[in-house]
Amino acid sequence: MAKIQMKTPLVEMDGDEMTRVLWGWIKDTLLTPYVDLNTEYYDLGLKHREETKDQVTIDSAEATKKYGVAVKCATITPNAARVEEYGLSQMWKSPNGTIRAALDGTVFRTPIIVKGVEPYIPTWTKPITIARHAYGDIYKNTEMQVPQGCKAELVVTDKDGNEKRELIHDFTRSDGIIQGVHNLDVSIAGFARACLNYGLDQKKDVWFATKDTISKKYDHRFKDIFQEIYDNEYRERYEAAGITYFYTLIDDAVARVIRSNGGYIWACKNYDGDVMSDMVSTAYGSLAMMTSVLVSPDGLYEYEAAHGTVQRHYYKYLKGEETSTNSVATIFAWSGALRKRGELDGSKELMDFADKLEKATIQTIEDGVMTGDLFLISKLENKKKVDSKTFLDEIKLRLDGLMG
């Protein structure tokens, strides 16, 4: 069988630990036998980030701007223990954060649903995609402890030196705490466009929620910007596509989500998205079955798994011990990137391959062949736990059949 050709390169970002091992196995077993991979390769493994003083991360983001589509392996965000383990000159920043900032992107996380792994919410028959605004709020806050007797004020000084003041609280009765948060209109607008574009791309409704009844300026600003952009730029396209944009209060949104069947994109402010993405991923069964794609307002895409580098399994692998690591989300990162590359290049053959790769992966699990994490939670009667490599080989058997 002739290999499928790629017209435009895909940016490939390699990573760390067990996911780096799986990355190579996935390419060798499930990709290169069928596709003549055309990638621009960047090694984002922690050792190489140290060697390049993290320039490789910046370069990979610039390459994504050039080619439009990237696929990324999970990477280490070093803490103090990692600095010592790898002999790092400094505690390098999260590659995801660096890339997200460079692309001005929004992260969309979606569960992969398979028979036998039932959501804890029985009505969730379709996936819920969480879109998290990744700028501002408490993640860029300023906070202070305040002694009793102090008065705290919010002060804004304009470019001419004029001050505007609002009382936060007069701490006459007790010690206390204060916190200052901010956001930017340009970042909120980018978030809105990324969400609304992704809704069109996925042909799914978009829900957005804040607490504007309480936060009448801060949260209300989010609501107003979303609505203005939707009305001026997206309403006609949404109506033509048969999808909707829906706004409600965050507490009402949570109630609606629990009662829903899923199948939509839930756009959340930074903190809400942080919390709700973990809630949704856990409720669907496994973080290892969660895809993640970073989308910029101007249509750049970077696909990866939502989980980390699986450090514990990597140390077992180094000892020569058998592992049963779930590679599904990493496989779907590749399939998502290949499908988007095919879509942008007009290559139906590449898009069809991505569909078949995902179908073969799901079919393998639904046939009862799965890794250890899914074996523990699957309700299938005839199920078999296999090691990491065997799982990929089993997918290949089914992929060969689908490829004819």
User: What's the count of strands?
Assistant: 18
Helices, by number, come to: 14
Strand arrangement, major sheet: 4-2-5-16-15-6-7-14-12-13
Provide mean pLDDT, rounded: 95
Strand content range? 15-25%
Features:
404 residues; alpha/beta; ten-stranded mixed sheet; two-stranded parallel sheet; 14 helices
Characterization of this structure:
The strands form five sheets. A ten-stranded mixed β-sheet has the order 4-2-5-16-15-6-7-14-12-13, with helices on both faces. It has a two-stranded parallel sheet with strand order 1-3. Strands 8-11 form a two-stranded antiparallel ribbon. The protein is 46% helix and 20% strand. The chain is of the alpha/beta class. Helix 12 crosses helix 14. The protein is globular, with a radius of gyration of 23 Å. The chain is built from 14 helices and 18 strands. Strand 17, helix 13 and strand 18 (384-385) form a beta-alpha-beta unit.
What's this entry about, in short?
The chain has 404 residues and is of the alpha/beta class. The protein has helices at residues 17-31, 46-51, 55-67, 80-86, 95-103, 185-202, 218-241, 250-259, 270-284, 311-318, 328-345, 348-366, 372-377, 388-403, and strands at 4-5, 10-14, 35-36, 39-43, 69-72, 106-111, 129-132, 142-146, 151-157, 163-170, 176-180, 206-210, 245-249, 265-268, 290-295, 301-305, 369-370, 384-385. It has a ten-stranded mixed sheet, with helices on both faces.
